[in-house]
Amino acid sequence: MNKEKPNIIVVGSSNTDLLTKVGRLPKLGETIIGKHFHIGFGGKGANQAVMAAKLKANVVMVTKLGNDIFGKETLKNYKSYNINTDFVYFCDDSSGVAPIFVDDSGNNFIVIVPGANWKLSIDEVHKAKELIIKADVLICQLEIPLETTIEALKIASLAGVTTILNPAPAMELPEEIYKYASIIAPNEVEASMLTNIDIDSVEDARKAAVALNKRGAKNVIITLGSKGVLTYSEGNFNVIPPIKVNAIDTTGAGDAFIGAFAYFYAKSKDILESTKFANIAAGLSVTKLGTQTSFPTLSEINNILIGL
Ligand code: ATP
Ligand code: RIB
Known about the structure:
By secondary structure, the chain is an alpha/beta fold. Helix content is 36%, strand content 22%. The protein has helices at residues 44-54, 69-80, 122-126, 129-134, 146-158, 188-195, 202-215, 253-268, 271-285, 298-307; strands at 7-11, 15-21, 36-42, 58-66, 88-91, 96-102, 108-110, 137-140, 162-165, 183-184, 219-223, 229-233, 236-240.
């Protein structure tokens, strides 16, 4: 296995992001004038795959698109990053879309319309089994049917493949899923929802990390937005501060984190060093508008790493 080019497989969503920049988010029932509109490729699965591919990992994407213009363009986008599309399926539903509003402080509101994503089946994941069990890392999120995600995690986990579960968007999960996650990586909202612990401080995040570990997730990483990242692994906590940046748009920061983490972890098997690397990738991604278009290159990340 060529560790310079780790093998990463993503079983997850593809969306087209319909992003509107506004001065402030509208109140209920209010009409406001937007500043700027941008269509981009998104979806948590797609974003994480593209981040890893930008770092020159070998990436396989297992996803489902609609037979429409968004689906066709999304397939082209994967190919432009040399992502393996052998398991990109099509159906008659509409492709996933995500209307997104970003305000002047870089905060966002996102509505996901899953469409074809909701049709990715267990059988379709089984067709990719050979590649799942050969991968260094499998990444899953929660924008496809839960049973499909669980099956992908189970196949990989039983074959000894490192699995990363990014439990986003926030939802309640069945207990069995935790034992299939080598690494669970929620943000604060998701960690809070899964544990019923309000997270207002790093101390709260530590409690949530312990609770997730007790459920069966071997390693826990909680991204804390502009407060950085907390890791809990083999009984040790680490808090990595954020890099200092001017935040323009945080959409997809969590995805940049996961894709970059998977790349570095596949090479190093080191949770802390991979988290430091991914924290830089995610920090750089908030300095530009958009999701995949804001993701940094390896040399941009390394330039910051060298300066630390
Ligand atoms: P999204 O759903 O928008 O993709 P998220 O909520 O999943 O993001 P966050 O926890 O907000 O993820 O952010 C992920 C990571 O991005 C943080 O842990 C940090 O490394 C980086 N990050 C986010 N906001 C900032 C910021 N303002 N400055 C520096 N780094 C940031
Ligand atoms: O994490 C950001 C992503 O969430 C966006 O690209 C949007 O498509 C939603 O899936």
